[in-house]
Specification:
By secondary structure, this protein is mostly beta strands. The protein has no helices and 11 strands. Strands 2, 4, 5, 6, 9, 10 and 11 form a 7-stranded mixed beta sheet that branches.
Length: about 130
């Protein structure tokens, strides 16, 4: 049974940083595509960052490029999202997703992912 558990969310002021973690069980994070998504109230869930299996190609939404970094620790079976220079518009519930296939160019597409965590809240105040 695949389980994804996110942690690391919280409240920060604009310009601050947070690091989110997604610990996986029943699934090997290095073997498939992993992604981070976010959803603000009243909005669709949107792709923020993705990382492919193997070589670890990374993908980012334009809104977070240069500020967020996705990475993977295979030994800990955990995927991270380092978020720097946070803005109030980054406020959302953040979800980790795990795919069952390679993601190719679809790492930021919600339909790519089969498994989801419960989410962790990020709130950025101005």
């Amino acid at each position: 049974q695949v389980q994804l558990v996110e942690s690391g969310g919280g409240s920060v002021q604009a310009g601050g940083s947070l690091r989110l973690s997604c610990a996986a069980s029943g699934y090997t994070v290095s073997s498939r595509c992993m992604g981070w998504f976010r959803q603000a109230p009243g909005n669709e869930r949107e792709g923020v960052a993705g990382i492919s299996a193997g070589g670890g190609t990374t993908y980012y939404a334009d809104s977070v490029k240069g500020r967020f970094t996705i990475s993977r620790d295979n030994a800990k079976n955990t995927v991270y999202l380092q978020m720097n220079s946070l803005k109030p518009e980054d406020t959302a519930m953040y979800y980790c997703g795990a795919a069952v296939f390679q993601c190719g160019g679809y790492a930021l597409s919600r339909s790519t992912y089969t498994y989801w965590g419960q989410g962790t809240q990020v709130t950025v105040s101005s």
